[in-house]
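Task: encode each sequence below as structure tokens.

Item 1
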Amino acid sequence: MNAPHGSTRVFARGSWTEASRIAAVLRRETVGGLLLLAGTVVALAWANSPWSGAYEALRDTRVGPASLHLDLTLGTWAADGLLAVFFFVAGLELKREFVAGDLRDPRRAVLPVAAAVGGMVVPAVLYALVNLGGDGLRGWAIPTATDIAFALAVLAVISTHLPSALRTFLLTLAVVDDLLAITIIAVFYTSSLAAGWLALALVPLAVFGFLVQRRVRSWWLLLPLAVLTWVFVHESGVHATVAGVLLAFTVPVVRSEAAGGPDAGPGLAEHLEHRFRPISAGIAVPVFAFFAAGVTVGGLSGLVESLGDRVALGIVAGLVVGKVVGIVGATWLVTRFTRAEFADELGWPDLVGMALLGGIGFTVSLLIGELAFGTGSERDDHVKVGVLVGTVVSALLAAVVLRLRNRRYRRIEELESVDEDADGIPDVYQRGPDAPGTPRPRPFTDG
């Protein structure tokens, strides 16, 4: 059935250019997710082995100049320094999506933005309800984040034929999620603010912005300015990862008219994203996971004891239940009160599978847990257990749902991959989703 005039299809097929770019991004993130899984497993095994003391000694080793207040532990360097690279890439991706990607159309942007907001508000409310009247309310933001690398690693293990539109939705939701998470960190988890240092950070940030706006790509100019910005933001009391997002937002997405304009090829944002995404996915996030995930569980009794803490229970409830209710609920509201409707080949079980993947909250959840309760504290260990249990349960449930949908996904993929001619672009992208001759699967309602 064709959509009514003026309506927007939810999860509809985007442009071929954007679909190709997203596919390349997802391949890199999937590899990064597998490295993230490896780092997590090694950390957990080491922290629960007879050599756990060596792991803690390595994590707590201090390096850096004390005169600049940068004699930080390796774990802190991973959380404050390496994750700044992660948020820089996320900021570039988000800006590109809304300036030059398919989401520059507000009708396409409203759904992932609404889903991301719903997927943060509901988990936070559930966590707060579980911890009402206790001393754990400070961690309300822990279950609000989605880890795209981990989620895509789960998809890689499932080997699902998930439609590209849903993958794009998951990626966009996670990127918007990251931006909202860094805003929460900056606003709610800044214990003290040194306005002078923050104002000083605007100087190298402004110079960096001036140079990139003039399309300067020389690393020996840009890198020192980025490091200075990071140092000053760190000294200001605001979490240093905020510097990564601020730097990313200064980078132009579209080529200047002198360089040929938008049709002349990728802009500087895409160039920098291409350069730094392998560092983010392959080094920054896995190393952070290695230092953050090493919690001594203490066997089954220790696991039960940790889950007896309302903080851990709130995190599990937020990730497993809150994410699904928030993402699916926000999507339902968009389709209920706007002219948006599902693309013909998709249905609500597909969205539930995506929402369950949204409950895989790892990197940013662990970071917020450390900020809320302090690195190495007993409550921080309970946070790690809650995040790990919530993530594993969400991943397992997502695997079950998506496996059940795998046959339908495969049929949809086979129908959409036909008719690729000499130009290398599947004709389905050239005809559009409602054009005559576009392959259609059987209606969703027939099972």
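Item 2
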Amino acid sequence: MSSASPSSPTPPAPGKPGASGSPVTLAERSRRLVREAVHALGAALSTPTEPGEPLLGQAASRWVRLLPYAVAFAFVASLLPVTVVVLIQDYHVNGGIAGTLATAQTAPLLMAVSRPLQAWWIVFTADVLGALVTANRDFAESLPWPWTPMAVVGYLALMLAVGLREQRRTLVSVWLVTGAAGFVFALVQPDLGQGIHLVLFVLSGALLLITGMLRARGDTQRRLVEQETISEAERARRTLLEERTRIARELHDVVAHHMSVITVQADSAPYRIEGLPEAAREEFSSIAASARESLTEMRRLLAVLRSENAEGERGPQPGLNRLQQLVEATVRAGLPVELSMAADLGQVPQAVDLSAYRIVQEALANVVRHAPGARTRVSVTRSPNLEWLIVLVVNGPPTEPTSPLETTGTGHGLVGMRERVRLTDGRLDTGPLPDGGFRVAARLPLTVRLP
């Protein structure tokens, strides 16, 4: 057998039409990459970072996490030498002092990636010292003062980092201190400056406002996500408690029936059995009294478990004898269901009987909600050793493309199944099938298991 045949398709060359027939040009790939980059950067900017963590440190993309360092390095590399040259040539500052001031005004931009407020203190102090150093220098009146053009550019870059990290009160304080320093220098030297202090005051305020809004938006989104997580956990907890309360109410009927039987038997024993000694009569009377007291306490407990607006259930609790009615009602609702039940299930405990019915009921309800129209099979049999009741509900994928009533499940129905199985000391196995269906298998004990 040859490795290739004349009819074998060959991969399209770069720039030629692909499988869909449309060429993927370099420009289209570039635009797609730019859109993805802008989307990733926007998501990173709206995600707040914790103190000490680098800006955009929570971004998923590595290049986005490295972007603040690259931008800060670019600013330092371009502003540092220009600042030194301008201070020496235009403002006639000593070379050593110019180098020190330029380093203090630009190098902290690298520090601003993780600690912008601390970097602002250094840069602001250096800018003020630079204004004091150049105040009495003989430089052209057209040059800006107290802030040099490079100091303004570096300061505005620093405002981006400060606005993305600090809280609103801190941003307002930074902005007011910046404006106050500029206006003080303008009062001292009113003939100098060309209004550069007003330019820095307005531009820094605008940058702090925009970046502060981005941070506030990110904080709001994060709090909403946290609140949704807490709400979902509370809903799951409330659902579990409600399901346990419902099970307790249903089991009350089962236990109450047995307690009533015990009471009747204990009361009627002296009349049914002749020749009972007086001690035995008193024992039966004590058993009947204890049963009545237990039944009374159970009814008080049920009153506590029942919600305020709930009324007592009048009908008997369902069991396996009503599975056929349940399946028929489901079929009438439009879900094709097949029921297979063993002819002789033997003596099924009432708690197991009720739990089996509720498990099938919830499983069919899940099929209706999530896979309407899917063919479903319900099977109820006994294990070969006759010790377990096996309940199996399997549904395949929907036979027709229909929209489900729910696209995302909460798992609350499975919570009730697990609680009922755990109550009877059984086992539950649930999960998706390879063909897209779902399987619910429960094993419930038919015999009393002593602890």
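Check on item 2: The first strand starts at residue 337 and ends at 341. The chain is about 60% helix and 10% strand.
End of task.
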